[in-house]
Amino acid sequence: MNQWMKQQISNFSWRKFAVSSVGLLTLMGILSFAIYEVTKVSVTVEVEDELDTIYTHASTVGELLEERGIDVSIHDYIEPSEDTALTEAMNIVYIPAQQVMVNIDDDEKPIWTIAGTVQELMEELDIVVNEHDVIEPPLDTAVTADMTINYETAFPVTVFSDGEEEEIWTTSTTVADFLERENVSIGDLDKVEPELDDVLEQETEITVVRVEKVTDVVEESVDYATVTRNDSSLERGSEKVIQSGSEGRIKKHYEVIFEDGEEVSRELVKEEVVSDSEDRIVAVGTKDPAPTVSRGSSSSSGTVSKGEWMNFTATAYTAYCNGCSGVTYTGIDLRSNPDAKVIAVDPNVIPLGSRVEVEGRGTYLAADIGGAIQGRKIDIFIPDRNQVNRFGRQSVRIRIVE
């Protein structure tokens, strides 16, 4: 009996001790967990505009982010810094950086940024986007990793066209693209300065010259020629018109170039005969008249004596007068020799071939005749038509030199 009781007492003591030990361990675990939880620091973490309250035993901002599985890059934004010690109710802001490609006026380079929109990125880069600038994608577009942003700075261009001047803002482009964009049409003959394939990269001036090519047809008269024929039935010095001349007509086709409405060139490209001219035919007498006064004598109507000064009436003529052939009676081509010193005379008074001095004018060759030149009259050859008109009719003194 005693032995059984001892055994029971012994079994009860060990069982009670075992139960007490398990309870103590459990209590200690609960207390430890409670103490662990109570000693955590409460902080607020903002990641990409999302707020999260975190309880942590981390001692620094960096340890906390590492706990959260956040791999911090040197381009990321952290406030406060990673080595800052955590304190109760601390606010931590973390913004991960993204790499984008930024092409500014054809200069492309990678940029790390924490900007949320294209507008914010431009502000980060200290770029003021004006209303005429070109940016793609638009400013309100959200920035995403590996996106490409193209930006072109606009500048003013002055355009002179169709008599007007206009200032237009544009970005870097060719002259041709710019004119097409602004609806400025260019004709095949129009001139543009600078050249159409030149690139506009700064403030400049573009000039458009309107070029027009037209054909101008002008009808002109063609002078008739005077043909002389020797006639032995007429006395020398006399003439008779056998056929009156008539002018011809010709059409001249000109290629005319206009620039901005002003003619700059005219080129003859074709001639078309409308009607032919008819020659004027004049019979010139070759019959020698009966001599009335010997060469050595002098009278009011006969041959002038050599060396003797006499009063004559003088007129003037050109090689291009109506009915003139331009060739003297003695065969001198006055059109080819405009400087020839020639007079027309009455051969009954001054023999052809004589050297005649006209007082105050010099020495002339008596080499021509004329139907109206009879007696003491001479007709002085002057190449300039205006001078002939001004000469009129004058009284002169002459003498035969040889």
UniProtKB/TrEMBL annotation:
PROSITE patterns registered for this protein in UniProt: G5
Domain G5: 208-288
UniProt keyword Signal, yes or no: yes
Listed InterPro entries: 3D_dom, 3D_YorM, DUF348, G5_dom, Resuscitation_pf_RpfB, RlpA-like_sf
UniProt protein name: DUF348 domain-containing protein
Keywords: Signal
Pfam family, one: 3D
Lineage top rank: taxon: Bacteria
